[in-house]
Amino acid sequence: MEERDGQVVRIKGLKKVYRAGETNLTVLDGLDMKVDRGEIVAIVGRSGSGKSTFLNLIGGLDFPTEGKITVHGVSVDSASEEELSLFRNRHIGFIFQFHQLLSEFTVVENVMMPALIQQFQTDKAYGRALRLLRMLEIEDKEGMKPNSLSGGESQRVAIARALINEPEIILADEPTGNLDLSTGETIKDLLFCVVRELSHTMIIVTHNRLIAREADTTYRLEYGTLNPLIEGSL
Hints:
By secondary structure, the chain is α/β, with parallel strands linked by helices. It has a single domain, classed as P-loop containing nucleotide triphosphate hydrolases (Rossmann fold, 3-Layer(aba) Sandwich). Helix content is 34%, strand content 28%.
């Protein structure tokens, strides 16, 4: 199934309720959202508002209580675990606040990993990885282990890893949240530059107003609802 009118993500009536003791906690309450191909969407909101939960639902890492989620033609809300695993590897790139690199592998091996899982030929995976490391200005670190890298360098490797399979959509959860202000600004600039150059779609959760201002569309998630923000309101 192809996206209609270039839409990569379509969400309708999304609801997520958690059981908390004897009561139900409604985190997301009937959200609707559409994301076009190549669009960068930022989601802001206070801690605990459900931003990470929202990303996890879109990425098939959690299941909604109600509602429909379609990503690249896949009904994420009703797919099996096996279908979701294949879907995530092929179509989604995840970037988290903590880079989660594998310490026993080199930088380039970490980046190549999703492509090798996808059964790319090693030389093709290596070529793609090297190109991304070059774009993110850390090609010279390809043979190093993660424990030799700075926080900013590690996050660049994590970004490259997320992009290696040329995903239809990137889900980024506070990608600069664990970095100092200067390093975070550098990572933000590189991330947006590479995503736009490669024409990827991205949904990014952030507390960083500079990131939110550079997105094509920004929403505030509060009290379980998703509200678009007009330019200048951040």
